[in-house]
Specification:
Elements lengths: L2 H8 L11 E6 L5 E8 L4 E6 L20 E6 L18 H14 L5 E6 L1 H12 L4 E7 L6 H8 L8 H8 L10 H9 L4 H17 L14 H16 L9 H4 L9 E6 L7 H10 L3 E6 L9 H17 L9
């Protein structure tokens, strides 16, 4: 089974496609305008979806992990990406700006508290938001945990993952002269922010391709060729956050502050063969978080679209809806 067939088979576990009942741009007052949409039941249990990257965007498929009769689903494109403006901008774009954006969205929509649902970088942001505003979080549902530590960056950009995927690693590494290969994040940073849009886009596509090549356990090692605008926003923002260590005060900040999540229930859905965010971090987090249920998914990698991961996430959200007395599970 190749990557694309794996993605197709995940669809069988999702709810039918749904359109938003609300779409808006929220002006944050500092030059950034954030795209926000709502779908599902306007009176349902609120859940906010935090996409990955940094620099990805929300997609219509992300609406489909939730019973639309039970949930009021809020999705937004984080600063600098997707439909938010300005596109690919790193000015005024830090983790703490994103935490404030979530609060601004919550207040604008009149929501007291919500379930936070996030994967990869979205899991990182979910954890940081939960630590910062535990009173606003009913539950955390996380996928493909990334803790924004130097060890994780070293694994993915320092050759660890390349031991398993030497062909795409060589393509990614060899874009950079040999004398700069000791710090590929810094080397790519110089090119992603060169001021030459053509050069930035070329290196952005290489950056995105390396990550895409490893996202699925079904991958054949080809990362594809992402559209230029998307790749440029994705790579610039991701690199900007990584160069700045996620704008956290110290390495290991999340684990060092995990006690603030003690009263918040959490579920982690983690691919056993996740090459981008190795399972060790999810396990460490679960060990330190008393009310956390870690679910390792065999034969699954990192991507949200992995069949086993999609099936488990829908199962988790259906179970929460049933526990809340909102709905019987959608007939399958």
């Amino acid at each position: 089974m190749d990557k694309n067939s794996g993605q197709k088979s995940a669809v069988q576990y999702l709810y039918p496609p749904i359109d938003p009942f609300d779409q808006r741009m929220i002006d944050m007052g500092d030059g950034h305008k954030i795209y926000v949409e709502q779908c599902g039941n306007p009176r349902g249990l609120p859940v906010i979806v935090l996409h990955g990257g940094p620099g990805g965007a929300c997609s219509p498929a992300m609406r489909r992990y939730f019973d639309p009769r039970a949930y009021r689903v809020v999705l937004f494109d984080q600063r600098g990406c997707g439909r938010s403006q300005p596109h690919a901008s790193v000015e005024g774009n830090t983790t703490w700006h994103l935490v404030r954006d979530i609060e601004a969205i919550r207040e604008a929509l009149g929501i007291e508290d919500f379930i936070v649902f996030g994967g990869s970088w979205g899991a990182t942001l979910s954890l940081i938001y939960g630590i910062s505003h535990p009173e606003r979080v009913r539950r955390l549902v996380l996928r493909g945990v990334f803790m924004m530590t130097q060890a994780e960056l070293d694994w993915f950009y320092g050759g660890g993952a390349g031991q398993f995927w030497p062909e795409p690693w060589a393509r990614f590494r060899d874009m950079i002269p040999e004398d700069e290969q000791g710090d590929l994040i810094a080397a790519y940073h110089r090119r992603l922010f060169s001021g030459n849009v053509l050069e930035e886009t070329r290196f952005a596509r290489a950056w995105a391709s390396w990550e895409n090549a490893l996202a699925s356990v079904y991958s054949n090692g080809s990362g594809g060729d992402a559209p230029g605008d998307y790749a440029r926003a994705f790579a610039r923002l991701e690199n900007h956050y990584f160069v700045n260590a996620g704008f956290l005060e110290e390495d290991g900040w999340i684990l060092n502050n995990v006690d603030r999540l003690a009263d918040i229930p959490g579920v982690i859905v983690q691919g056993r063969y996740d090459m981008i965010c190795p399972p060790r971090r999810a396990w460490e987090l679960a060990q330190a978080w008393p009310d956390c249920d870690l679910r390792m998914i065999r034969n699954a990698g990192h991507a949200l679209s992995e069949p086993g991961i999609s099936a488990e996430l829908v199962r988790v959200m259906d179970k929460i809806a049933a526990e809340e007395g909102l709905q019987d599970p959608w007939p399958r």
